[in-house]
User: Fold this.
Amino acid sequence: MLAYIVRRLLYALPILIGVNLITFALFFVVNTPDDMARMQLGVKRVTPAAISKWKAERGYDKPLFINDSVSGSAMFTDTIFFSKSARMFAGDFGRAEDGRDIAREITSRMGPSLAIALPTFVLGLLVTVSFALMLTFFRASYLDFWGVVLCVAMMSISGLFYIIGGQYLISKMWKLVPISGYSDGLDAWKFVILPVLIGVISGIGSSTRWYRTIFLEEISRDYVRTARAKGLSELVVLFRHVLRNAMIPILTGVVVVIPLLFMGSLLTESFFGIPGLGSYTIDAINAQDFAVVRAMVFIGSVLYIVGLLLTDLSYTLVDPRIRFN
Assistant:
């Protein structure tokens, strides 16, 4: 097991380097430092002197990969690539355009993002899996038919509708919770409960249909017919056999959500005024703060690779036949 983990981590390193290089190329080759300076300065203040000053203040006046004006290791370290991209592997994300430390901002904003993402993830998984199991139990019945119709209808509705509708109905009309904002401590539940509720409801349609398809595929297999032949009830077959054997595809789908647990929801945090990583990313895009955007892309890549590793390891818990050497 330990050898497998080490091997997977070694495999992940080239992937992260590749993502880092692609991100760097997008930001500094396609979109040169001169272009970044023009966007930040605005049309009226763009002069060669202003561009040179802006680049010098932010370290964008150096060569991209190799600095021929110096010798030794400084040829590679005194470059834009090392100062803006390579240092992210050590957790040094630099500073945003407003001068604030990006790593400190990420640390402070991770809490509000997790306060929304974790309950949404756990409750959403419980609700959708339970609903899918119910539809599978009553398969080929009117309940199953109308349940699928409801899922398709919920899938067809934009997530913005759930957010705006929930804010108008629950916050503005019924005045049960604040419409937006955030508070630290125990008072945070008043601001978190509505985003969590909307996040769970908006994901019921697509997730339930996906899990229902998995369960229906499993319930037609030979081991299920064997279990029924032994006299086991349909509920026992469904929960003890079908659900357990369906956990591998379920875990594979869950890994996609893991980066969102830390990165936050872009739309939800923006509409509800939650000072999390999602709204931080949106604000950086609107402000054309490329340093923050680069850091968030890199963190998302790291989290996705970690999620894949955790998913592979969790396979051994749900299927004893899988062993890693």
Remarks:
- The CA atoms of residues 38 and 45 lie 8 Å apart.
- The mean pLDDT is 86.
